[in-house]
Give the backbone structure.
Amino acid sequence: MKEEVTYEGAQREAILHHKGPMLVLAGPGSGKTFTITHRICRLTGSYGVDPSEILVITFTRAAAREMQERFEALSGGGKSRISFGTFHSVFFRILKFAYRYDGGSIVREEQKIRYIKEEMDQCRMEVEDEAEFVTSILSEISSVKGEMISLDHYYSKNCSEEMFKQLYTGYEDRLRRANLIDFDDMLVMCHELFTQRKDILQAWQKKYRYILVDEFQDINRVQYEVIRMLAAPEDNLFIVGDDDQSIYRFRGAKPEIMLGFEKDYPQAKRVLLDINFRSTKEIVEAAGKLIRHNEMRFPKKIVTKKGQGKPVVTRVWQDPQEETLEVVREILAYEKAGFAWEDMAVLYRTNLGPRLLIEKFMEYNIPFSMRDSLPNLYDHWIARNIISYINAAAGDLSRANVLSIINRPNRYVSRDALELSQVNWESVKSFYQDKGWMVERIEQLEYDLRMIKNMAPAAAVNYIRKAMGYDDYIREYAQYRRMKPEELLEILDQLQESGAGYASFKAWFDHMEEYGRELKAKVQSGESSPEGVAFMTMHSSKGLEYRIIYIIDANEGVTPHHKAVLPADLEEERRMFYVAMTRARERLHINYVRERYGKKQEVSRFVREYLGRE
């Protein structure tokens, strides 16, 4: 390494650190990768540490690869003997030696899904949104393992405790029978191995005498416990992260572990990398005003190297349609002024957020790429139900179509009453001829379908929701699934909003088809060459930066999300907004609306906080 490199004060202290624990608080754009790679060079160069005794842990394979490449370029090229890896790859390496595991021992994603589905069949469990439910259950299983929680003390977010216990134990049983482990088992088994076999633990402690952990704010309980064991007795543990950017609690990340690090290691030194090399003064100051409202954090004052720039632009629009149109006009103006499409990104809280804007981008032929695969609104099971009602009204009485709506809401119609491949309402009524109330229900459904047939799309959706009781059915289903009904009702609101732009069902359905085609094409092309304006969730934006950032829909209920109720949830939401704001290098635009789906909207408290108007 060339010795003439000069370091800033705090950075210098971190890079020159030799032995013992150190906590490095690295604010946004403060050069943490630079700090980590230069410290490794210092260890191997000035302090004579054997490279094979250094372990660098990151959270993603891409970050581990980038860290390794940066270090190798810095140290003069050539393969290094330093171990770079993710928690999972490092812990799996340890298990491989102990238990002779290989790549075939790790359960594949599709096998996990199959195991849960088979367990659901065993429990005779029926859910409308099977794929979403399975993903949520697997995520909960991961949390239980990562937090080392006893099943007896776990309250499931997706189903009854008894049902979750059955799914969990059934899934575990299938893994063991197939002699497989999942990613969380790697962590738990490593913990067990080190606890039970002190000789094996000591061998690894001797191998890895210096441990550096990146993105430490995202660590979970079991990862931390294993790292503590591994770092003992020398405790040369160098952790780098930003508690203000911890946004993965839903994956088990515990920012409080970082906040408690100095209690666990009273001898630890703390360094704050407080210079932001990325953003202008206005952006850094606005973000600082916001994040100061969190109570569970290390206090810090971040300053910028970039100097003055443009003020943060905060705008209110009448409704999402106006917001969408104005964002498109501004982005077109930026492009005319010489900014590349790739200099700009649009950030939103959830994947439901950008549909209107994406439709407008398609209409104006503005190139864009998506970092997350966006769920197609029209493929959602609720949308398919509504479309099936409209199709039935238009004459599609095929058994499959009628079966998908007949008991949504529940009319208690038996499948046996629909025996023909084409449903005939007269034969259904004759099936129930001795039950007058059932005949009335069928006649009511016939009447409703006749009413829908001649309506405009938005009016038809409204009629199905209110007059036919579909909203009530959704509320009941949400209760059964332990969800907030708003999550599902928003799908209906979006559908109604979409239908309002079309006079006929045919025009609306044609639009759905074209939108679906475009979305698929975008996902495929976005994977290979991310060209155009970037669309992504706040979560996905972490670690990235753009010259111009647009945050859309900064309204209460969207951000902070209506799911966030507890103080810890609200602090996480604020951190997410902070991450979104600090992605911007030069220009930051934050938009909110007065009205959505015909209902009055409140501006997000986060907007009031960074403007200093609480």
